[in-house]
Amino acid sequence: MDKEEVLNRIKDLSSLGMITEDEVLESFYYGKGIFGRKGNKNSILSTILYYIGGAIVFLGIVVLIWQSWDLLSSTTRILSSFGAGLVAYIVAVILNRHNNLHAVGNAFHLIAGLVLPVGLFVIFDSAGFDITSFGVSATVSAILFVLYLISFAISRTILFALFNIIFGTWFIFSFTSFLVGNSPQFGDSDFEEYRAMLVAVSYILLGYSFLKNNLKVLTGVLYSFGLVIFFITTLVLGGYSPEQNMFWEVAFPILVFIGIWLSVRLRSKSFLTFSSIFLMVYIIKITSEYFANSLGWPFTLVLSGLLLIVIGFVSLRLNKKYITLKQ
Amino acid sequence: MLKKENLTLLIGLSLPVLLIIVVLLSIYIPRLSAPEPQNDFVYSIEDNYYYGGSQFAVKDSRIEKKDLRVDKDIYDARLVYPEAPVYEEPRLFLYDVSERISREISLEDAQDLEINPSGKSPDDFSVSCGNRVDGFIFFVFDSGEDCRQQFVRGHGISTEINIDVDMSDYRYQFSFIGWIR
């Protein structure tokens, strides 16, 4: 069935009064990955309230367990945490079977996604494991990652994709930390910085790959997190005089300008915003690192301020000319 | 042919997997070719609460005990803090690298051993502190040297030293003394 046929079918159903405007809009937004939105502000507000409600339920469960920790037996602790998370997940699956209850179902998925990690930690704690260890952390994140990977394979929703990214990242960090352990071999290297940088690049690539599907809403978030982590790790790798790493100090402005170029290519405000912000950070860092003593602080401040104004102006022009207008 | 979006998705998902593979390889590949450490060594566990206690040193390849207290009363923490723990004399341990066990030895037994106080063993191993990473979930709060754990390190590998003292107690400090000749 091509687009023309679908539109004609909608016209037919509309003339027969068999389809409402809300139903058409809901289907349209569902395809965009926006659930519970029927094109009016009330439904957006109610969706936000569902999620806030879900977050409050999570806080309630955490506070309940925390306050009554000594009074509860191991079984009760597990039931009130993991049990609650499991029930929330099952309720969410049942609610999501009904088209008009998707938003409430997702609120329950939010509760499950937040409570299940707590529940798994409670189980490991009750079994006598050290829950602060990277081994337990890696196991918990792996269980959750697999659960939400299966969930995503069944239903390709934004919430499942988001949980997959969060639990996947958590697994990568905890599992590699578990493998490395406290070995001094990795202590000498910049392992943590390179690991974070790799995850950041992964976020940016995932963000790009979601551009043309129903996960597009995650692109901006992934770009933003990816760029912030990427630029911070690059700055950390560059270090500070006299212990600077010349390679990363020189590479940083090149990477920032690549970011600005990509902002135009991808028409991405996230790329433009964070590349500009980190170019400003770099200018302040370099001037204070190398020129504060030779030029003196007052002149350094004036120079940095003028450069920041130039960057701000150029960013604004690029945004108007290549990003906002073309969108 | 793969679409651009699918290719980036593939690379984006492959990078973390690649990271795990690289970490695994960098841990396990050196183990295949690295020699086993051959030289046993002696270390001491000292009382970190007291600045002026006793220490062991190596002179003419023999271990000797040095009393660093200039005036015993000045360094007696219990005079200022009656609740302070009683000063513990430093203890000597011989580490068997092949069995990976620590055995406490007396000063008299230790003085029979010929000691090389060099940082590197003849087979190019050294003893160094561990690396601590403090974090939760994926937030690394802090990382750096952690001398509560000690490692025999060299040729791209490192193995943890089994210390028979509760090193989580900050009063104890590990001091490498030397390799047994």
Summarize this entry quickly:
Chain A has 327 residues and is mostly helical. Chain A is built from 13 helices and no strands. In chain A, helix 12 packs antiparallel against helix 13.
Structural features, described:
The complex is a heterodimer of chains A (327) and B (181). Chain A is an all-alpha fold and 327 residues long. Chain A has a domain at 196-327. Chain A has 13 helices and no strands. The two termini of chain A are 29 Å apart. Chain B is of the alpha+beta class and 181 residues long. Chain B has two domains: 1-33; 41-48 and 58-64 and 90-180, no CATH class. Helices cover 21% and strands 40% of the residues of chain B. Chain B is built from three helices and ten strands. Chain B has helices at 4-33, 77-80, 107-110; strands at residues 41-47, 54-59, 62-67, 91-96, 101-105, 115-116, 126-136, 139-154, 157-160, 172-180. Chain B has a five-stranded antiparallel β-sheet with strand order 5-4-1-10-6. Chain B has a three-stranded antiparallel β-sheet with strand order 7-8-9. In chain B, strands 2-3 form a two-stranded antiparallel ribbon. In chain B, strand 8 and strand 9 (157-160) form a beta hairpin. Chain B is flat and about 75 Å long.
The total strand number of chain B stands at: 10
- Beta strand % of chain A: under 5%
Report the C-alpha radius of gyration of chain A, rounded. 25 Å
> How many angstroms does the end-to-end distance of chain B come to?
65 Å
Largest interface (C-beta under 8 Å): A-B, 37 and 38 residues
Contiguous uncertain segments of 5+ residues of chain A = none
Cα shape of chain A: flat
Question: Care to count the β-strands of chain A?
Answer: 0
User: SS-based structural class of chain B?
Assistant: alpha+beta
Number of helices of chain B: 3
Extract low-pLDDT stretches of chain B: none
**What characterizes the major β-sheet of chain A?**
none
Element pattern of chain B in H and E: HEEEHEEHEEEEE
Relative helix content of chain B: 10-25%
Summed over residues and divided by their number, the pLDDT of chain B gives a mean of 83
Number of helices of chain A: 13
- Mean pLDDT over the full residue set of chain A: 85
Structural class of chain A: mainly alpha
Helix fraction of chain A by DSSP (H/I, runs of at least 4): over 70%
Please provide the ordered H/E string of secondary-structure elements of chain A.
HHHHHHHHHHHHH
